[in-house]
Amino acid sequence: MTIITTALASLMAILPLSKPVYPVLGPNNIQSIIRSLTLEQKASIVVGTNRGFMSPPEAAPGMVVRPAPDFQAMIAQASAEGTDVMEAVTAFSRGKVQGAAGEGYKIDDFGIPGMVYADGPAGLRIDPTRRGDDKEYYCTAFPTGAVLAASFDQDLVFEITRAMGEEVREYGVDILLAPAINIHRNPLCGRNFEYFSEDPLLAGKMASAYVAGIQSNGVGTSVKHFAVNNQETYRNGIDVHLTERALREIYLKGFEIVVKESKPWTIMSSYNKINGVLASENKFILTDILRGEWGFDGFVMTDWWAEENGARQIAAGNDLLMPGTKHQWDEIIDGVRSGRLDEALLDKAVENILRITLRSSTFNHYNYSNKPNLSDHAFLTRTRASEGMVLLKNDGTLPFSKKTKKIALFGVDSYDTLVGGSGSGNVNRKYKVNLDEGLTNAGYTLTGVSDQLSAYVKEQKAGMSENFWTVPVIPEMSISSDMAKKAAKESDIAVFTIGRMAGEGGDRTTEKGDWQLSDTEMENLSAVCKAFHDAKKKVVVVLNMGSIIEMASWKDLPDAILHAWLPGQEAGNSITDVLCGNANPSGKLPTTIAVKYEDYPSADNFPMSNGTPSEVCYDEDIFVGYRYFDTKGVKTLYPFGFGLSYTTFQYSDLNVTPAGDGFDITLNVKNTGKVEGKESVQIYVSAPEGRLLKPAKELKAFSKTGLLAPGQTGSLKMHIKKEDLASWDSRSDGWVTDPGTYTVCAAASAEDIRLSSTFSVE
Ligand code: BGC
Q1: What stretch of H or E contains 409?
Q2: pLDDT tens for residues 112-124?
Q3: Dihedrals phi, psi of 220, to nearest 5 degrees
Q4: Cα–Cα distance, 316 to 277 (Å, whole number)
Q5: Tell me: the pLDDT tens digits for 546-564?
């Protein structure tokens, strides 16, 4: 006893001198860690460490405007201290992985590491080179979101994102800030190239495959932007007014699918307001719906610099504030001290972050190689992009005949092909393949006009460089009718590329040169089509853009039109593979191409058109995309789900049988043409008359065949749950499925129904 007392006494004597012993983060002690953390430490865990050079986005009128980090002051201080100025600035942004969008706060005493967050949807975005380091850190620019969605193929998305996730893991990043899944409500949204579709089922299913692919590497995703971020104009606070039915059925549905099916590690809240409340302060969507109804078990982070009040963000269920500012940190501490923020809510946010931290590469000391398999990924990009390309028109011109050797290649984007959009969705790739290079790689000869155009593009590009906000766009070069005639004489065929660039922070416009062709583009296309048709030769248009443009005024001029989107760094090779028939395009439109812009139901209330840009009312309610065109009988130019192939397919044997929680749908698809190809089949369901007004039909399932040889038949099987048929009824505040007879259609597009059947629900 005396011995023990003496020992204890000596221990007590030593203790004040030794370092306190803290619990070290492990799977079973998150609560005890939280109990040991100071208020300041907790606030630090939920506020990012603010790395990066981007400034906060332009604030919507009436919002609090916060300053960007003061780099001038840092530079001044470094100069005064005689230290290397650039070193001081890059040290700030470097963190564990230079060029990553953000990093979490680390507390060594508790073994809590700071996780690393980096963009973005088309591939990892980090700095490709580092000061004082001769190694390279390039990433693959994979096909962008619209291409993935147009593939209508979850397996393809999984395969591509599994490769993308390898780059995330091997470059030491913990969480990829992707996928971006907001609905294409209007074709002018600047980020539609990152987003998937106008249809929530397609968006949600693609997102599920995407998250599964990335997370199969042991790294996380951040599904963004939650929610209703369907425009970029005044994105930092624009107030979106919509009904709860539209919110749930159209704008949240995709998120619901991915949360339930693939369990993303994180969700990124959006900048905008939803019915008056900022998304990042919106308890209704962040806590009640996301966690309460859908069972989300990861953590929510803000979009970058989205802040009005850090304490309110935490209280709403927004666990991590990125990239983190001092204001937010102060607001959280003041909030707890003044009783305005319940400390238990802060503890919950810390717990959510630590739970995911346990899974991270950084926590698990993953020995990343900085050497992902870029050449395999380039090959994957090249070969799979064609499966999202959409053949809109073809009178037999494509694929090129064996006799085609000499090509007249028009359009500046043929020589400076766009492979991704601007902003955080851009990737620092090692190279890109332009279309002129793709065609010459495949052995085609480019005729005279190519020399003029490529010299023009080179000259225009001199001094331009790509940065976060800008991918340089070259004005179109004018083609005289004499040039077109000469080209027609010298060449077997003309290929004419039309490109458009877009990115975050701004929406597109209805002007000429954007939604409409510019005068030069229209004149060039007319001159080229006239000259080539006079010479009995064909013209192919390639659309090289992340979204869509007005086409009714010119689509009859060329003989074939291929929508190649922004297909990733192998663009020129991928497009060539389709043009020459090495690959059969099997993409289908994830978005309706209307006859004219004014036909879109959102045209009157897209922010740029309504005169009050800080507010937008989604008056069309649930009637977005084909749901509107179909129900109201408005003619489209190319419907949702449309896409031609170099072969033809016949559908047969549609069967609908009750199974488990819903219905199994089976059918056969036969390749009735002369070349091998894949076909994606869409299953639409029309509801019986019921309590609520329903769209004429809604996509409820889709599936794609494998590669079918001529004459070969493939079988497809899909499942629809009864709950998938429900609509949100605001009167009863719940989902309702009306009883009655439902019609099921197997379709090649929203306007090409091949087979139908019925089933009943009691
Ligand atoms: C974008 C996000 C992106 C973040 C970090 C923001 O400007 O809206 O999509 O993940 O920056 O780069």
Answers
A1: strand 406-410
A2: 999 999 999 999 9
A3: -105, 175
A4: 11
A5: 999 999 999 999 999 999 9
Give tens-digit pLDDT for 690-730.
Answer: 989 999 999 999 999 999 999 999 999 999 999 999 999 99
60, 239, 649, 664, 719 from 653: Cα distances, Å:
54, 48, 13, 13, 16
Q: What is the pTM of this model?
A: 0.94
The token duo for 182 is 């907001």
- Ligand 1 centroid–CA 503 distance in Å is 11
170 CA to centre of own chain: 22
Preceding amide of 241 cis, omega within 30: no
- Checking if the pLDDT of 92 tops 70, the result is no
* pLDDT tens sequence across 516-528: 999 999 999 999 9
- Positive or negative, the CA dihedral 296, 301, 307, 310 is positive
Residue in 553, 574, 548, 573 with CA at minimum distance from that of residue 563 = 548
Alpha carbons 620 and 617: distance in angstroms, whole number: 9
Cα atoms in the 13 Å half-sphere on the side-chain side of 383: 9
Residue 656 CA to its chain's centroid (Å): 33
Element (H, E) at 168: helix 154-170
Whose Cα sits closest to atom 9 in ligand 1?
Answer: 424
Decide whether any atom of ligand 1 lies within 6 Å of the 269 Cβ: no
pLDDT in the model for residue 581:
98
Q: Specify the ligand 1 atom closest to the Cα of 52.
A: 12
Looking at residue 315, its amino acid is A
Which residue's entry shows tokens 């605001």? 730
DSSP output for 703-750: EE---BPTT-EEEEEEEEEGGGG-EEETTTTEEE---EEEEEEEEEET
Distance CA 340, CA 333 (A): 10
Close Cβ partners of 377 (under 8 Å, ≥ 6 residues apart): 140, 142, 163, 164, 166, 167
Ligand 1 atom nearest to 117, measured from its CA: 5
Q: Could you tell me which residues come within 8 angstroms of residue 639 by beta carbon, excluding any fewer than 6 positions away?
A: 589, 592, 593, 626, 629, 749, 750, 751, 752
Termini Cα distance of the chain: 78
Question: For residue 390, what is the enclosing H or E element?
Answer: strand 390-394
Chain mean position to CA 603: 22
Q: Is the CB of 194 under 6 A from ligand 1?
A: no
